[in-house]
Fold this protein.
Amino acid sequence: MKLASQQQAPGAGERAGGGAGWFGVPEVYALIALLSFLVARFVPVLDLHFECPLRALAGIPCATCGMTHAFVHLAQGQVAEALRWNPLGALLALGAWTYAVADLVRILARWPLPAPPLRLVRGALWAGVAALAANWAFLVVRGLGA
């Protein structure tokens, strides 16, 4: 019998379609992360000049303002500029791209997918919510330039 703190997150270790194949939900996330790097690195997305609706209506940045700039600058190797635009966006990009590489290594090495305990998943969720709120407060107080 597992204790509540030892329970696994729902879907942990499962694969799309219920099979035990090598391509499932974790690999979809890794593929999305890889595509985000390729787009940020090779597609001129900053030339689109999209304006944040919240900033346009209320004059304050949204919680994700500057993330596109952060991803693009980090993909170009401009770490300080990525952090200037959106610190959480830069960390998110770095984490996503690291995850993509780690998942590829896991697949090639034929290692099993680790199943984190539910307690760890919940802690990570609340840490993410707190980081998003802190990042938004930072952006609002600093008045991120458009």
